[in-house]
Amino acid sequence: MDQVLWTAVDKYFSKILVGDDPVMEEVLKTNAAEGLPPWDVSVNQGKLLQLLAQTLQARQILEIGTLGAYSTIWMARALPKDGKIISLEFDPKYAEVALSNIRRAGFADIVEVRVGKALDTLPRLLEESRGPFDLIFIDADKNNNANYFSWAIKLSRPGTMIIVDNVVRNGSVIDTNSKDPSIQGVQRLNEMLSRETRVSATAIQTVGTKGWDGFILAIVKV
């Protein structure tokens, strides 16, 4: 089993189950042309986010880490017309590209992108009484995963689903000697979750066009 085969299988499922998607293909082309890093979720992962949002009948979604809004648009497709996504992005350039993609996809009325450090923006959301959110997707700097998750709980309700991306990192998550801040950030989150009684969580490993990685999925209980 290797990356070539993982990619071929991923492409097989995206072609037969998702099909051609000119809007999302254009988003990826725009992101690449603008020099954004290729950190977007895969096609199948994007569709998974949409299906999870639909299953939850989500009306309010919080995303931490916008990049070029690829995952944002997948989730926006699951929302009713009066739904809302608030997406937090640190980099002004990424946010500019994201807003262009969001407008072109027809979701300018549903998606709000806030620029700045998420750890500065998250307290403001609480002060503004935004939320509780039905779905929270965390896909930003991994070093702050535990901090983001703590804020996600504060902005949740019983039944809120919290998803954290990139938690396997080619298996490096189990390397207790790692000096990589991203891996250490995932490990801190896992240690926190092992003691956190307010959520029920699990992890799912994934392979495909994005390599070997995975998600943490958690449901808020109280």
Which of globular, elongated, flat, extended, rod-shaped describes the shape?
globular
- In N-to-C order, the SSE pattern is HHHEHEHEHEHEHEE
Category by helix and strand content: alpha/beta
Specify Rg, calculated over alpha carbons: 17 Å
Portion of residues within helices:
40-55%
Termini separation: 41 Å
Q: What's the rounded overall pLDDT mean?
A: 97
Q: State the helix count.
A: 8
Number of strand segments: 7
Strand order in space, largest sheet: 3-2-1-4-5-7-6
Strand content: 15-25%
Unreliably modeled segments: none
Describe the sheet with the most strands: 7 strands, mixed
Detailed description of the structure:
It is built from 8 helices and 7 strands; from the N terminus they run H-H-H-E-H-E-H-E-H-E-H-E-H-E-E. Strands 3-2-1-4-5-7-6 form a 7-stranded mixed sheet, sandwiched between helices. It has helices at 3-18, 22-33, 43-55, 70-76, 92-105, 118-127, 145-154, 181-195, and strands at residues 60-64, 84-89, 111-115, 135-138, 161-165, 199-208, 211-220. The mean pLDDT is 97. The protein is α/β, with parallel strands linked by helices. Helix 2 runs antiparallel to helix 5 and helix 3 (43-55) packs parallel to helix 4.
